[in-house]
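Thread: Newbie trying to understand structure tokens

Hi all, I'm a second-year student working on a class project, and my supervisor (Dr. K.) asked me to get a predicted structure for one chain before our next meeting. I've only ever worked with sequences, so writing a 3D structure as a token string is new to me. If someone could post the tokens and maybe explain what I'm looking at, I'd be very grateful. Here's the chain:
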Amino acid sequence: MLSKKQQTTKRVFDAIFAIVGLVIFLIPMLLFIIIASFSTKSFGIFSQKRVGKNAKLFMLYKIKSMRVNDSKNHITTSNDLRVTKFGKFLRKSKMDELPQLINVLLGDMSFVGPRPDVEGYADKLEGDDRIILSVKPAITGPATIKFSDEEDILAKQENPIEYNDTVLWPQKVEINKVYVKEWNLMKDIRYIFMTVGQLF
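---
Reply by user tm_fold:
Sure, no problem. This is what the structure looks like when written as tokens:
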């Protein structure tokens, strides 16, 4: 679990770079939202309640990449027909995550850490696993990097939800536990560079 000093360091880092990111990406983000509005035939922002630090719910924002938002089905695969052509570009480039800079600035999320889950996952953790809830969910992290091709993996499964719940999710829990227990700022910076490197 992070000390108060570590939490402060992480929060200051997040706030500074969220502001820098919004200054750099505000115009592209607005442009993508407009295009997404046309391609999905609905307002181009997707919002959904996710589980945050200490299992408190918050509203996560993304640029919409699907024609229909089915909140009951939290698993999306690379062959999901609901994803628009522009949405595929957004997902591949991770540009659909840009509005989460606002989540970071608001203090709901961090740049690095566990990904924010829908209800029924992180909020159901027990015992030592709940250490994951001591940090804010994030845009990227070691588990996100390891499973960067998650949608392709799930697309090959006969039952994607079952595979996610029994294979991917337990692995993510173990990776995220190690992340929290061994946290330091330099690792966060390295994970950010690794994430950017995966995009090129």
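A couple of things are worth pointing out once you decode it. The first helix runs from residue 4 to 40. The chain has one domain: 4-198. Feel free to ask follow-ups in this thread.
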